[in-house]
Design brief:
3-stranded antiparallel sheet; alpha+beta; 14 strands; 422 residues
Length: 422
């Protein structure tokens, strides 16, 4: 299959639901290949990692976007993404990222472990109650969404009563992150972006009247103190912090649970030895990445693996394919938590490495052992349903039966068990 044909198949509904066969068809032409005029597809781990760190390679910021899509400001969805740190280059990107980074230091993330564990236990209790008598429950609705949205909303200072609103709004908005989007899909994304923007406009006004110890207040004060953050940047970054703060983790939890349920022996090892959770989470990120791709453009000519990418060339960096590059990961289609070289590219690399990667890892490292220990009878129930998305890969619906629950944890370890023991 020629690269253009493989890329077209990848963008089809069937390819978005299961992109891995298309990745291999593209990989057969080399780790970086020109698929269309001016469009280069990257499937190699080393090549993607190098390009993500290369200062000559940039995201499509608002200045570059002006030359391609002069009417982009008419779209609330495109504007929300374009004015955030996700779609800005240095020095603006560095300025915005620095303002939010204080909420995601290793020390602050580590301090949230008990909060995450307590929330996980509460959600498991609710799942067990809803699933009494073998009734199926939807893992995405009952656990994978509320856990990370509760954590990021706690950081942002979003009241608990408002959190259920965000699932639909963000699902609609993130359609704009897809490499291709129809006018109808863009209209849906614009509606979601408008709802989110209106919500954060009200929250910003409230924090000006009533400052609190949260990230929203910190960003509002940075804006009000001078020129460190414009009003448009303030709203755009609040939206992207919310969206990135739970969309990726929700997909990690859903994708990861499906993999663990399909590999019961590996799941049993984690159940008995929760200290291995970091290795398991890294392999789950590699095996079925919640973020499958990102895009870049070359600011000047770049030559890599014998391929010349001209200035202005488009790079489609297939992170999900890079994570299955056999040159780095032998037998990449095999789930193996004991790989010698984890470090998947699921959170990117370089200046745009995901700000909340440590928090997402913490949530998954707490959630999976807790789910497996407390719900030893957890099993699939019915047909799961994937989202027809490529960039953010996950489930809409993942039905499970929970069985009889075991007691909650005490201090992050099973009741009556010393912390650190298997």
């Amino acid at each position: 299959m020629e690269p253009a044909e493989a890329l077209a198949w990848l963008m089809s509904p069937e390819g978005r639901v299961d992109p891995y066969p298309a990745y291999e068809r593209l990989r057969a032409h080399g780790p970086i290949v020109q698929a269309e005029p001016g469009v280069f597809v990257v499937t190699g781990y080393a090549e993607a990692d190098e390009l993500l760190r290369d200062a000559r390679v940039r995201v499509l910021d608002e200045h570059l976007r002006d030359g391609l899509l002069p009417n982009w400001r008419d779209s609330p969805a495109v504007s929300s993404i374009a004015r955030s740190m996700l779609r800005t280059n240095p020095p603006d990107h560095s300025r915005m990222r620095r303002l939010a980074a204080g909420a995601f230091t290793p020390r602050r993330i580590a301090a949230m472990r008990e909060v995450v564990a307590a929330q996980a236990d509460e959600l498991i209790d609710a799942m067990a109650s809803a699933g009494q008598g073998g009734s199926p429950v939807d893992f995405m609705t009952d656990f994978a969404y509320p856990l990370p949205v509760g954590v990021i909303c706690e950081l942002l200072g979003v009241p608990a009563a408002d959190r259920p609103l965000f699932r639909r709004w963000t699902a609609d908005l993130t359609g704009v992150l897809e490499p291709e989007i129809t006018p109808a899909e863009l209209a849906v994304a614009d509606a979601g972006a408008t709802e989110l923007r209106d919500y954060f406009t009200d929250l910003v006004a409230d924090r000006r009247r009533h400052p609190a110890d949260d990230l929203t207040t910190a960003l509002v004060q940075a804006h009000d103190a001078g020129e460190r953050l414009t009003g448009e940047e303030l709203l755009a970054n609040l939206v992207i912090l919310l969206v990135a703060g739970f969309e990726t983790t929700t997909n990690l939890l859903g994708n990861g649970l499906a993999v663990l349920l399909a590999h019961p022996r590996a799941a049993d090892v984690l159940r008995q030895h929760p200290q291995h959770a970091p290795a398991y989470v890294d392999e789950l990120l590699r095996f079925d990445s919640p973020v499958q791709l990102t895009t870049r453009t070359s600011g000047e000519s770049v030559r890599l693996d014998g391929v010349e990418v001209p200035a202005g060339g488009w790079l489609l960096l297939l992170l999900g394919a890079a994570n299955r590059d056999p040159r780095r990961y032998p037998q990449p289609e095999r789930f193996d938590p004991w790989r010698a070289q984890p470090n998947p590219l699921s959170f990117g690399a370089g200046p745009h490495y995901c700000l909340g990667a440590g928090l997402a890892r913490l949530e998954a490292q707490v959630a999976f052992p807790t789910l497996l220990r407390r719900l030893p009878g957890l099993t699939p129930a019915g047909q799961p349903r994937r989202r027809i998305r490529l960039t953010l890969r996950g489930y809409d619906h993942l039905p499970v039966t929970v069985g009889e629950p075991l007691p909650a944890t005490v201090g992050g370890a099973p009741a009556g068990t010393a912390i650190g023991s298997p």
